[in-house]
Design brief:
Structural class of chain A: alpha/beta
Strand content of chain B: 15-25%
Shape of chain B: rod-shaped
Distance between the termini of chain A: 23 Å
Helix content of chain B: 40-55%
CATH superfamily of the largest domain in chain A: Response regulator
Order of helices and strands of chain A: EHEHEHEHEHEEEEHEHHEE
Number of domains of chain A: 2
Radius of gyration of chain A: 19 Å
Number of strands of chain B: 12
Number of domains of chain B: 3
Distance between the termini of chain B: 44 Å
Strand order of the largest sheet of chain A: 2-1-3-4-5
CATH architecture of the largest domain in chain B: 2-Layer Sandwich
Shape of chain A: elongated
Mean pLDDT of chain A: 87
Number of strands of chain A: 12
Strand order of the largest sheet of chain B: 2-1-5-4-3
CATH superfamily of the largest domain in chain B: Histidine kinase-like ATPase, C-terminal domain
CATH architecture of the largest domain in chain A: 3-Layer(aba) Sandwich
Mean pLDDT of chain B: 85
CATH class of the largest domain in chain A: Alpha Beta
Number of helices of chain B: 10
Order of helices and strands of chain B: HHHEEEEEHHHHEHEEHEEHEE
CATH class of the largest domain in chain B: Alpha Beta
Oligomer: heterodimer
Helix content of chain A: 40-55%
Largest sheet of chain B: 5 strands, antiparallel
Chain lengths: 223, 458
């Protein structure tokens, strides 16, 4: 996995690079939007971390250039500005997610994994998470190399949870996503399906947490 | 205000300026009315007196001028009957000899060449009006004097006076009332402007809308608006400075934080884990403080909502907060749960999310491990509510007001807060026209609650 870090502050850029290298990513650092544009012209990146406040052309400009050039790689904005307008304009420019400084390295790593997971799901139609793999084309599931037998409803629930991770998915949303299979599905029925899913996943390293009063979440690998 | 006593108000000035001339004009006009009515009534009475003189003259012409004029009783009674006034008369020749009538009637000096003249006189100590006529009958010059008491005239005067006095008094009172109400009504827009300014919060520095106020005070309001703009710019500059400073600090802090995270993963502080933890906590607290400073500066920037109010579904804000705070609650072993039903309020979504984030953050911060936090939203008693309840130590009654002050910390509370959470929540609540209620939870803990009016079309 190759990641481009666009950040003009050396302390931040070097820290990010070291942290991401430790996690096994290949990292290139660009100190300006112009330099970053040069990089993406000659190299293929799986992901870009972009600071908004850059000298001369800002990060938003770079992201727009990237999207205009037809590059679909996931972009995570790292910004010191967290006002609504800033984040909205970042997402409008074509970024996929944003983090506000100061961030924690594990948080950055989790966001990177989530973005790459989603981008891979689009590329090879597979949702991967800690040894769990959902192949959305063949509708087959594997857990730590073994085939996992899932009912249609369990599949739909797990797919929703994996797509959203690390965000929480409300029970209502799960009910809605199951409505295609079962018109009169109740929140209680969702609970039954989730509890069956849990026992099927018990052998592996994937847990589904209950958030009291809201819904469920597939936990990030660290937890 | 003391200024009110020193200089008379606009209303007082207007009332005095209008009422005094009005009363004078009405008074003078009443006097003229009275005099005119009286002179007309006097003229009519004089005409009656003259008629008596001419009747006598006709009588003399018909009966001839004899030394002793014979007025039979009937004609004399007719002449004298003018109740309630008594009539006296005399007919004298040129030498002053009384030919007929009352002997002791005074002689009046007729102006030269004058024919019929009227005089005010006194007769037997009674006020009289006399008409004297000089005629020539059968080549003899005689003067006819008819005199009557003035009872009818006085009665007419009284009637005129009372007939004029009451309506004129009514007109004066009506005019005064018109002035009072007119001035009050005319000054109503001023009162409206005054109330609008008085109702403002100290942070509300929006310009006053000139369209709804009378144009006479526009120059004054424009000056006031200029002042508002200047104050607003000053406040904005200050908040911008805070925001810029916080932004500028965030980047090096991010670098520092990353280095600490690297040190943790590399085990660089294996000799002294406690020191690393202190550094980590300190850095995290600075980061949080910067974030709080930014959101406080944003929330406090203007007294009005910094955007167009929209319909906000509270349950969606609460749902999103679950993703944000679940890990922090897990890490602290606090059970973070939710109890939500759909409800819509009017406001700004990001501000309400900010308020909720601060309430949940506080709850996690101050609830000991093993504790329980429940976030609720929904409708109750015709209002929308959003609340966060924990079973932590709560806030003692004595500190309930102080905790809304910036940087206030309850003595003895854990050291990782920065004292901006509740002030931010209060700013946001005020921007939404509501307040933060701090309620004791049972058996222990705090329930922080915001209530909003339901949108009208809900």
């Amino acid at each position: 996995m190759r990641i481009l870090v666009v950040e003009d502050e050396p302390l931040v850029a070097q820290g990010l690079k070291q942290g991401l290298v430790q996690l096994g990513y290949a990292v290139d650092v660009a100190g300006s939007a112009e330099e970053a544009e040069g990089f993406v012209g000659v190299e293929e990146f799986d992901m870009a971390l972009v600071d908004i406040g850059l000298p001369k052309a800002d990060g938003l400009h770079f992201i727009r250039q990237l999207r205009a050039a037809g590059k679909g790689l996931p972009v995570l904005i790292l910004t010191a500005r967290d006002s609504m307008e800033d984040t909205v304009s970042g997402l409008d420019a074509g970024a996929d997610d944003y983090l506000t400084k100061p961030y924690r390295l594990p948080e950055v790593a989790a966001r990177i994994r989530a973005l790459i997971r989603r981008s891979n799901a689009i590329a090879d139609a597979c949702l991967r998470h800690n040894g769990l793999c959902l192949d959305t084309r063949s509708r087959s599931a594997m857990l730590d190399g073994d085939a996992l037998d899932l009912t249609n409803r369990e599949w739909a629930i797990l797919e929703q949870l994996l797509m959203a991770s690390p965000a929480v998915v409300s029970k209502d949303r799960l009910v809605n996503s199951l409505a295609g299979w079962d018109k009169d599905i109740t929140p209680n029925a969702v609970e039954v399906h989730v509890s069956r899913l849990r026992s099927k996943l018990a052998a592996g390293n994937v847990t589904i947490r209950t958030i009291r009063g809201i819904g469920y979440r597939v936990d990030a690998p660290e937890n | 205000m003391p200024a009110d006593r020193k200089s008379p108000g606009l209303r007082q000035r207007l009332i005095v300026a209008l009422a005094v001339p009005l009363i004078i004009i009405l008074g003078v006009s009443s006097v003229f009315d009275y005099r005119m009515a009286r002179s007309m009534s006097d003229a009519a009475s004089d005409q009656g007196l003259a008629d008596a003189v001419f009747d006598l003259e006709t009588h003399i012409r018909n009966h001839g001028l004899t030394s002793r004029l014979d007025l039979n009783e009937e004609s004399e009674a007719m002449l004298r009957s003018n109740a309630p006034d008594a009539i006296y008369f005399s007919i004298r020749d040129a030498a002053g000899q009384v030919l007929a009538g009352d002997q002791d009637i005074p002689v009046f000096a007729l102006p030269a060449g004058g024919k019929l003249s009227f005089f005010d006189a006194s007769y037997h100590d009674t006020a009289m009006r006399a008409a004297v006529h000089r005629v020539s009958i059968e080549d003899t010059e005689i003067s006819i004097t008819v005199m009557e008491t003035t009872r009818k005239r006085q009665r007419a005067q009284r009637e005129i006076l009372s007939g004029l006095l009451l309506p004129n008094l009514a007109v004066i009172i009506a005019s005064l009332l018109t002035v009072l109400f007119g001035v009050r009504r005319g000054l109503l827009p001023l009162g409206a402007v005054e109330r609008e300014i008085a109702a403002r919060s100290p942070h509300d520095l929006r310009e006053i809308d000139l369209a709804s106020s009378p144009h006479e005070i526009h120059p004054m309001l424009r000056r006031l608006n200029q002042l508002f703009v200047q104050l607003r710019e000053a406040a904005e500059a200050q908040n911008r400075f805070i925001a810029d400073a916080a932004h500028q600090l965030r980047t090096p802090l991010a670098g520092l934080q990353t280095q600490i995270d690297l040190a943790v993963s590399e085990g660089s502080f294996s000799k002294n884990e406690g020191r690393l933890q202190s550094i980590e906590q300190g850095t995290a607290q600075i980061g949080r403080l910067l974030g709080q400073l930014l959101s406080y500066a944003r929330a406090e920037a203007s007294g009005s909502l910094p955007g167009k109010p929209e319909r906000v579904a509270l349950e969606q804000i609460v749902e999103r907060s679950a993703s944000t705070f679940f890990d922090a609650a897990l890490a602290k072993d606090v059970d973070l749960g939710f109890d939500i039903s759909p409800v819509v309020v009017t406001g700004l979504q990001w501000l309400l999310a900010e308020a909720l984030a601060n309430l949940i953050d506080n709850a996690i911060r101050y609830t000991p491990p093993g504790g329980c936090i429940t976030v609720r939203c929904g409708k109750a008693d015709g209002k929308a509510f959003l609340e966060v309840e924990d079973n932590g130590p709560g806030i003692p009654e004595a500190h309930r007001q102080d905790v809304f002050q910036r940087f206030y910390r309850i003595p003895g509370s854990p050291s990782n807060g920065c004292g901006l959470g509740l002030p931010i929540v209060r700013e946001i609540a005020e921007l939404h026209g509501t307040e933060v209620m701090l309620i004791s939870a049972q058996p222990s803990g705090l329930r922080a609650r915001l209530e909003f009016p339901l949108p009208a079309n809900d």
